[in-house]
Structures
1.
Amino acid sequence: MRIPFFSVANGGLATSIARRSLEASARRIRGSPTRSPPGPGSESTVPIRSGRPRGLDFESVGSVGAPKRPPSPAPTSGSGAPEAHPCSRKEVAAVPSQQQERSASTADAEVDVVVLGTGAAGLTAALGAAVHGASVAVFEKAATVGGTSAVSGGIAWIPAHDRCADGPLSVADALSYLHAQSLDSMDDELVEVFVRTGAAMVDFVEAHSGVRFEIADGFPDYKPELPGGRPGGGRSLSPVAFDLARLGVWRDRITAFPADWSNVGFDAETRARLHATVADESADLCVAGTALVAGLLAGVLDAGVIPRTGARATELIAEDGAVTGVRIVTAAGESTIRARSGVVLATGGFEWDPTLIRSFLRGPMHGAVSPPNNTGDGLRMAMAHGADLGTMSEAWWVPIVRIPGDTIEGKPRSRSVRLERTRPRSIMVNRAGRRFVNEASEYNSMAGAFHYLDPKGGYVNDPGWIVFDAVHLRRYGFLGIAPGDPVPEWFCESADLAELGKKTGIDPDGLAATVSAWNRHVAAEVDPDFGRGSSAYDGWWGDERAATVAGRTLGPIDTAPYYAVPVTVGAMGTKGGPRTDRDGRVRHVSGTVIPGLFAAGNAMAGVTGRAYGGAGGTIGPGMVWGFRAGYAAATGKSVEI
Ligand SMILES: Cc1cc2nc3c(=O)[nH]c(=O)nc-3n(C[C@H](O)[C@H](O)[C@H](O)COP(=O)(O)OP(=O)(O)OC[C@H]3O[C@@H](n4cnc5c(N)ncnc54)[C@H](O)[C@@H]3O)c2cc1C
C-alpha cells in the first residue's frame, strides 16, 4: 500500500495525542450504574438450570502428576489486609496473587471443562459451563482479560426477542432479513439456532453475571430496508454501564487500548450513539465492551472460576481421537491440563497472522483493528486434529486508515473510519478519482467495493482516498484531530483539487469531475450513483443536526483547503474456523464430530456467512455459541430452543 505524506515526527500531533489520552481515558467513566445488578441469591430467569454453580480453584482440583499444594495467600491491599472481592460469593482467597498464578499454571491439573480465550465468547462459555455444574479452567494468552470484546462497542445483535416496547421481534422476520443479505453464504440450520437462542442467552447472562443489556434505541439494522429489516432498531442490545469497583483486584486486569484518540478509543460522541454513556458521575463506571467483559468476568469469578492470564494454549491433547486436554505455556513453563468433558476454543480469529490471511481471505486485508493476540492459534490447534473448516474467506471487514509510526504492542496499528466517511463534505475516491461505494453504508459489505478486481488494473479501489474540505475539518475534525487542531502531516493538504490530485496520485481530471457532479447532486439531496443517504442506516453516524437522513451525510466539497487521507480495507476480526454443530462441537473432516472439542466466537466458522445483521452482529452469535458450548460441555446436553 502506498501511503505518502506521512511523518512520524509531528510535535503538534504528539501534543494532540497526549491531550486526547487524558480525554479518552474517560472511557472509564466515573458515575453510578444506571441499573444495579442483582446480588447473590436474586431471582433467576435462566431458562436452563442443572446443578449448583461450581468453580475451579486450582488448589482444590485433583492434580495430574503434581502434588497438591497448600492454598496460596490472598492478595493484599496496600495496608497488608486482605482485599475484599465484592462480586464473589467465595472468600477473597479465590482471587489469585502473582504467586498463585505462577504455581497454578505450571502444575498439571484436571477439570471438567477448559476454556481458551477470555473474549465475550470464552467468558460466556465459562459462565455457561460453571453455572451448570462443571469445574472450569480458563486460560488467556494476553496479560489481561477480554480480548477484542473488551475494546469493542460491546453491543450484541439479538434479532428475535420480546424486550421492545412495540412488541416481540419474530424469528421469521430475523431469518428473512439475514437470508436477504447472505448471498447464500450462511449455514441455514445454525443461523436458525442462533436466532432462536439469542433471547435465552441474554436472559441467562443477565441472571448469572453483572451484565445488563438495554436496547440501543433507534440503532438501525445494517441493511434495514431489506425484508425483515428494522430501520428503527431494536435488535442491537448495549451493555449498561458497569461499576469496576465491584471487581476488586480484577478491575485493572481488563484489556484496554492505549488510551488515546480516535474512534477505537471510543470518543464521547461514539459512546453516546452506542448508548454507552452515564449521567451520574460518582462511581467507577465503565461502558461498552469494557462493561460487557467486566460484567461477564464478575459472573465467572462469582462462580469461582479464576482466569489465568499470560497463559497461551499451544496444543490439544487427544486420546483415541477425542480431545482430552490442552498444553498451556506461561512465562514459568509448560503444563498440561486435562479436560474431562471438553475444551472450548474461544481464541478469536486469525486477523493478526499474515500467513493465514494470505492463505484464506478472499481479498486484501491490510490491518486489524483488534488487539494483536488473535493469531489463529485455535484454528491451527483444531486443524491438527482434523477439524473441518468453514467461512474461511470472510472477515468482519472495516475500512481503515493507517498512520505511519502508529503502533500497538510493536505492530502497525490500524484505525477504523466511520464518522469521517459518513459526515457531510467527505467522499471516498479511487486512483481514477471516481467514487466506488456509498461511503455512509455499513463497513462490512463495503469491503466488496475495495475487493473489486479489475481484469486489467487489479484492485483499482484499494487503496482509496477520503477527500474532504475545510468546512468538514472545521466542523467535525477528523479521526481524532479536533476542530481547530493543527493539521497533521499525515493529511495531504492543497489549495485546489487539481493540486490535491497531483500530490496524491489521484487522477486530477477524474477528481474534478467527481467533485463537480457530487456538489450538483447533493444540492438536491440525492446521490444517484450510490444512493448515499437513502437508507436509515446512512444517517446514523452522520451530522445529527440535520433534519433529514440525506442531510446528515450529504454535503458539498467546495471550500479550500482540500484534504486527502488514504483509506484501505482491514478487519475487526476474521470469521472462519472449525465448523461446529448447534452446540459448538467441532466437526471432523470425515463428517463426525471431534469428541471433547468445542468452538465459539470468531474462533469457529461464523454461522452468518457474509451477512452482518446490525450493530452487535459478531458478539451476538459469539455469545450464543459460548453459551451453547459451555452448557453442552458441562452437561452433555443441548440447550433446548
Ligand atoms: C473497536 C471495535 C469495536 C467493535 N464493536 C463491536 C460491537 O459493538 N459489537 C460487535 O458485535 N462486535 C464489535 N466488534 C467486533 C468484536 O469485538 C469481535 O468480533 C468479538 O469481540 C470477538 O469475540 P471473541 O470472543 O470471539 O474473540 P476476542 O474477544 O478477540 O477474544 C479472543 C481471546 O482469545 C485469546 N487467545 C488467543 N489465542 C490464545 C491462545 N492460544 N491461548 C489462550 N488465549 C488465546 C486472545 O488473547 C483474546 O483475549 C468490534 C471490534 C473492534 C475492534
Note: The mean pLDDT is 84.
2.
Amino acid sequence: MPLVSSTPLLQAARQNGYAVGAFNVHTLEMLQAVVESAEETDSPLILQSTVGTVKHLGADYLAAAAATAANRTRVPIALHLDHCTDFDTIVQCIRAGYTSVMIDASMHPFEENVAQTKRIVDIARAAGVNVEAELGKVGGVEDDIVVGEHEALLADPQDCVRFVELTGVPTLAPAVGTAHGIYKGDPNIDFERIRSIAAAVSVPLVLHGGSGIPEEQVKRCVALGMSKMNIATEIRIVFSNAIKEVFATNPDENDPRKYMIPAKKAVKAAAIEKMRMLGCIGKAADCR
Ligand SMILES: [Zn+2]
C-alpha cells in the first residue's frame, strides 16, 4: 500500500494501548531491514530520517525508497522527518512525499513554540500529513541538536493541554526524562508525569530517546500512554557493529553486499525485538 500518514497509526496505538516503533534509517539497507521486520511481524511502522540524513541522501531519494518499500507490502508505513527546526526543510520533505513531520521549536519560549508549530500544522493538515511537536526539552545529542543535562526540561501537563489546544498539533512529544543517544546509567524517566500528561491530553504521545531503555521501563511507558517510540542510536550501533565484525575477520573484503547483508540482518533482529517490547506486533490490521 502507499505510504500513509502516521496519524491513524498512532491514534490506533493510543486507543489500543501499544506503541509504534519509529526507526531512524540512514541507508537503503537499514530502511529495507526495518520494513522487513514490520512485514514479517505484521506491525505498523514509522520510518524516520533526521535532517542530517535528508541533507546526506536527499528528501526525494528517501521518499522514493520509502514509497517503494511501502508499495511492496501490506503493512501500513509512514515516513517521518525527525527533529526539524527549519520551515523550508519541512516544506521540502512534505513536497517530496513525507507523510509526517516534526517541528522542533522546543528551544524557544512557549509562545514562539506555539506559533511555529501552528504554522506547520496548518500547512501539513492541507497535505494530509501528521505533525509532531516537542514540549520541554529532551536532553542528549540528536544530529546537530545538542541539549546538555542542565538544559533538559520536563514538560508540564497543563502546558501540554494549552499547547495542544493552541496549535491543534495531532501528536505531542513531551520531555519526560529520556535522552538522545545511549544512557550512561539508567534513564531517569518521570513515569508519574507520563500518566498526568496522558490523562490531560487525548493526542498520541511520543517517547524520544528510546535507545537503551530497559524493557520493563519501555513497557511501563507504553502502558501509561506513550504511542510512539523513537529508536535511532541502537540500530545505528548494531548496523555498524555487524560491519566491523566482517572487517575484523576479513579486512580485505570489498564487496559491499558481503558486509551489508549481515548489517541488515542485525538491524532486522533489533527492530523486531523493539516491536515486541512496544506491543505493536500483529497490529498492522488496526490501520488497514
Ligand atoms: Zn528525539
Note: Residues 6-239+267-287 form a domain with the TIM Barrel fold (CATH 3.20.20.70).
